[in-house]
């Protein structure tokens, strides 16, 4: 029986709780994709956040719902605490409360749609009971979300901050900002997708990594406020996020000096927070911010996959790698060139490091903590298995393209 004493529905001949528990790994990516598709603000979140925090919350919620169907036990204690903490992080990042709550209902709708799609004709009678159970489960879940979000809002309520977050949300949604927003409207923005590496203290034994990460983020925020005179719009967590820096010049009017100034500012931020920063940067006018945020995140991911390292990366810096990362038969065939190395992770790691070290075998050996002769042996093995030469030339260009394609396959 369901918690409201209705017969336990089945899905494809399997009890709904059992089917749901088994299907969690398959359902989670679909739920996250639904959030990105239906909620534009979620589409602007850092990819790492979607893969880690958001995916983790979805997984926990699905498992909790399966347990509720099986045992009639609503989430409590640590389960609700985790949801409150997640909602607090969303509040810190500036996501609108309505969007955060909507995410849970969109997720539930996606799961129920999947159940309805798989249920046979004789199982349809059990679907209303499953929907009723979903609403019963969501009541304490949404209560925890509201508690976590509003606790942060009450603790840090600030009219100016709220106005900035409202402006940021409008820009990312592609909506005209509210007329009453008292923040000046610039000609454009530098749209920065920022990846923040761990601070050394985050990996020290005996140190609370959450505290170290919080301090790192606070130092970065403080210096960013100083550099932009408090005008930047931000949505940041300890692993990265989005920053919009107002500019007085139209995006097309930026010069090389302007981009060099940005690089200097990012280096200054790096020194103050004592963590490496990898930045995808795009200039956009206000109506183009939403698209620019997506592009900046893609540029950063491509630069990281290509081994470009920390610093500021623009689309012109990674044009080839960006194009190679786009889906299509050419990308798939390029990636397949490295299939002979699939069972030899040390060869793939050596090849990746070889390119990161500008084809310098000694630097590669030092980076891998192996002798240069070992690097030579592995490079010869790569050539033997792939048929592509690792001596600078057409073969290395093809290998680098294959690595890039494989990273995004």
UniProtKB/TrEMBL annotation:
This is Uncharacterized protein. InterPro entries: CdaR-like_regulators, PucR_C-HTH_dom, PucR_C-HTH_sf, RsbRD_N_dom. Residues 347-404 form the PucR C-terminal helix-turn-helix domain. Residues 25-163 form the RsbT co-antagonist protein RsbRD N-terminal domain. Gene3D superfamilies: PucR C-terminal helix-turn-helix domain. Pfam families: HTH_30, RsbRD_N. It comes from the Bacteria. PANTHER family: CARBOHYDRATE DIACID REGULATOR, PUCR FAMILY TRANSCRIPTIONAL REGULATOR. It comes from Cryptosporangium arvum DSM 44712.
